[in-house]
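The instructor's notes for this session suggest beginning with a concrete chain rather than abstract definitions. Hand out the sequence below and ask the class to guess, before any prediction is shown, which regions might be ordered.
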Amino acid sequence: MNRIRWGMVGGGAGGFIGEVHRMAARLDNRYQLIAGALSSDPARARHSAHECGIRRDRTYTDYLAMAEAESSRADGIEAVTIATPNASHHAIAAAFLDHGIHVICDKPLATRLDDGRDLVARAAKADRLLCVTYNYSGYPMIRHARTLLAEGLIGRLRIVQSEFALGWLAVPLEREGVKQAWRTDPKEAGPSGVVADIGTHAYHLARFVTGLEVDQLAADISTFVPLRKLEDNAMILLRFKGGARGTVWASMVAAGETVGFRLRVYGETGHIAWDQAYPDQLHLHLLDGTDQTLHRGGALSPYAKAATRLVAGLPEGFIEAFANLYGDYAEQIIAKRENRAPDPLSLHAPMGAEGIEGLAFVDAVLKSAQAGSGWIAPESVSDSRSPPRD
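After discussion, reveal the predicted structure:
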């Protein structure tokens, strides 16, 4: 296979998310990491590149120099992953898109809605992909749930509950100089804390699985830890178009929680439930008495089957879900290279449109909070995608 020539900005040695991206990209052997500006610190950038097997002449200490140099090489990178703090995403993504390089950006796409729209416009002008790694949409059972709901298994949808609860910031760790302290600093994280960081994951998953569009939302956000600069807890009511109702709860101060990410969807005839702690399971409960735990490896939809690698009984998890997105993006990138249509199932991976939806969600939450938790209509984003039914 002629692997995708791939680079990274950020994600240097010792960090978490950069290595996650590298493991995910390696899993199906469709990418080759050949260039990087892995840190803003020159010494760490060089050390990190060496650890990743990047040659010295493809090691950069500045993303602008990397974009210019790589775009001028016959063997330059085709795609770049951005794994830096939020506030830098727009500038970095713009530089690579303007140099004709596909962008895979860790969420959120930017810190301002206008910047997100700008990136989508740049991607369209350059005819390059702008990908956003809402990685939880890569779990096979989440993809199976999307198909089941699209097929009407539980009837017309009524209630959607999505929650993402962490406990690691229940105490002021940012004052102790921990590596992830930037998430509480508006200069690096942007105007939102927990909502932009994990609330967007919960919101995207609810939208991805149900296909419902939000008409209005009302948000109650809090900063429980004294002197913290950004919100660390958010409870958000959703009114969906068509009449369904929902909630999103996002918290970094849920003491004792590790990663409590859960989704429940209730329809006219039953409900489904998924818990990230048991990602290979999807619970189905119907009014006719059906009470099932669906397992990966059972009678799955083609969309879910395409996202599995192991035999039933061997669990797949976080890295594999991330890798499924990288697989979808690889299919689209290679299809462009070969001037052919990509596999339709790859087109459901989160792209710039979903990135803008996340930013519109954050923007509406902050406006609602400023208006005393009043109802706000998020700016709409056209999205013609529909759940797979084959």
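Then share the key points. Residues 382-390 have pLDDT under 50 and may be disordered. The longest strand covers residues 157-165.
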